[in-house]
Amino acid sequence: MDSKCKEIQLLLMDIHYGECKMSEETAGHLAECPDCQACWQEMQEMKEILAPLDFEPELKHADIDHALLRAEKKETVFELLQFAVVSLAYLVLMFVVFRMMKPHYYLYYQGFLYLTLPLFSLPLILRRIRKGDSHG
Ligand SMILES: [Zn+2]
């Protein structure tokens, strides 16, 4: 196989994969050269054999949307649970302070609440902000 055949067979491969069209020069060489004809013939046969496998898998957009929606719902439930746990912890702490300690400790608790509540709810707020960003 000479260098011209090598060149033509590389071109034939490009033509086979639809990357370029058959030029007159390539067609002329193909008509005269048995080696290149055999190569082209093999490529055509391979194309026919592989034709049944050449298809795009069907995407089920409805299923994908459904899965995304379910994931979003789960996330919302998780956020609600987080919020409920934090709120419950504050309520329990308030009752403990009321029952076990002297009434003026309630003022300390109130101060504690005002100072710490923003810190404890920060992760929830940040998550909400990030979620808002990702939705546009
Ligand atoms: Zn050739």
Which helices and strands, and how do they pair?
Layout: H1 3-16, H2 24-32, H3 34-50, H4 61-100, H5 105-134
Helix pairs in contact: 1-3, 2-3, 4-5
Molecular structure report:
- The chain starts with a helix and ends with a helix.
- α2 packs across α3.
- It has 5 helices and no strands.
- 81% of the residues lie in helices and 0% in strands.
- The protein is an all-alpha fold and 136 residues long.
- The longest helix is centred in the middle third of the chain and has 40 residues, at 61-100.
- The chain has helices at 3-16, 24-32, 34-50, 61-100, 105-134.
- It has 2 domains: 3-53, no CATH class; 61-134.
- It is rod-shaped, with a radius of gyration of 36 Å.
- Residues 5, 8, 29, 33, 35-36 line the site of zinc ion.
Q: Provide the β-strand percentage band.
A: under 5%
Helical content class: over 70%
The count of helical stretches stands at 5
The largest sheet, given as strand count, sense and whether it forms a barrel, is: none
Catalogue the ligands.
zinc ion
**Given the helix and strand composition, which structural class is it?**
mainly alpha
